[in-house]
Structure formats: C-alpha cells, structure tokens
Amino acid sequence: MSDIKLAPAPPGVSGAGFFATTLDKAVGLARANSLWPLPFATSCCGIEFMATMGSTYDLARFGAERPSFSPRQSDMLLVMGTIAKKMGPVLKQVYIQMAEPRWVIAVGACASSGGIFDTYSVLQGIDEVIPVDVYVPGCPPRPEAILDGVMRLQDIVRTESVRRRESDEYKALLESYGIHNG
Questions:
Q1: Helix, strand, coil % (nearest 5) of the chain?
Q2: CA-to-CA distance for 8 and 20, rounded, in angstroms?
Q3: Is 16 known as a binding-site position?
Q4: Is 90 annotated as a binding residue?
Q5: How far is CA 1 from each of CA 49, 62, 106, 135, rounded to the nearest angstrom?
Q6: Is 139 annotated as a binding residue?
Q7: Phi, psi of 35 (to 5 degrees)
Q8: Measured distance CA(69)–CA(85) in Å, rounded
Q9: Which one of 43, 72, 110, 143 has the fewest CB atoms closer than 10 angstroms to its CB?
Q10: What is the distance between the alpha carbons of residues 86 and 121, in angstroms, rounded to a whole number?
Q11: How far is CA 96 from CA 30, 37, 164, in A?
Q12: What is the pTM of this model?
C-alpha cells in the first residue's frame, strides 16, 4: 500500500499533486480491499467462519463484508469442512461459475488435507479438484486464523499482476485441473 504515493505537481501545473503509480498496484489495492467471499461450508469450520463474520472478529473491516451465496457474484471461495469425493464435481462447478479473477482459501484440516478422514470417500484436500491460493490450518481453525488467511490472500491479490490471468502458466494450471477458461 505504501507504493502508491501522491507526487508533487510538475512545473507549470497547478494543484496539490497527482497519483504516481502503476495500474497493477492501483487495481491490486482495489481488489484486495473488496473481496466478496463465497462460503462453501460442510462441517464445523463453517461455524468458525460464522464467528469470523460476527461483530467480535468483524471480517468486514478487511473489505469482505458482503458474503455472497451466488458464485457469479463472488471472487473469494472459502472451502470449509470435509469434502466428500461426490462433492468434488459440485465444488469444481462452483469454482468455474465464479467471477474472474477468483481466489480460493482452504479452511481447516479437512479442506486442506482430508483431516482425520483418510477414507475412500473423502477428498484428501480440495487441491485435487481446484487450485488453492491459501491454506488455513486447524481443526477447526480459530477465527483469528481465518482472518490471517484472508490477510494473506489480500497480500497475494495486492501484488498480483493484472495480466497474470492471461498468462500461459495460469492457463496451464487451469488445464491441469480440467478447467477450460475462455
């Protein structure tokens, strides 16, 4: 955030100054402070997310005060809880329907690694079906840990290039998950 500075006006120009920054930094700052979360909660981590949205922890002060339950109006997917293999295609479809650019936070041990459920029916991490940007550890994680995960995602969003989503590396990442963007 300190990279955006008010520069003095050039000679012959009246006024207090003008903004001197790159488009990437300005867009990154705007995106990082206006994330719209989509909670995908299947277990106890969802209760911790509810506490995070409450007045004690207040996720709204980080610019994510509008949880959306429509993937088309969200750009931050928070997956919380155990994801059965039968839910994998549903989770992938929700991810595909989200607005671009989109980011994912795996909240808790179950979403990150399957947790204690090392069985045939449970995904051993949602990164088997969709790309994950931030992992939040815990079983269940405290609201402070979820807030830390959101702040880490804000750092990623703030520094991400506007052109990253058109890069060959990003397209290859989506292709590796069987997601065809375009």
A1: 40, 15, 45
A2: 9
A3: no
A4: no
A5: 27, 14, 26, 24
A6: yes
A7: -75, 135
A8: 22
A9: 72
A10: 8
A11: 23, 15, 17
A12: 0.84
Distance (Å, whole) CA 124 – CA 122: 6
User: At a CB cut-off of 8 Å and minimum separation 6, what does 50 contact?
Assistant: none
What phi-psi label fits residue 27: left (phi over 0), alpha (psi between -120 and 50 degrees) or beta? alpha
Confirm or deny that 110 is annotated as ligand binding. yes
pLDDT tens per residue across span 127-180: 999 999 999 999 999 999 999 999 999 999 999 888 888 889 999 999 999 988
Note the pLDDT tens digit of each residue in 97-113: 998 899 999 999 999 99
Interacting residues of 41 by C-beta distance below 8 A, sequence separation 6+: 49, 78, 80, 81
Q: How far apart are CA 110 and CA 115, in angstroms?
A: 4
Element (H, E) at 6: strand 5-7
**For residue 37, which phi and psi values (nearest 5 degrees)?**
-80, 145
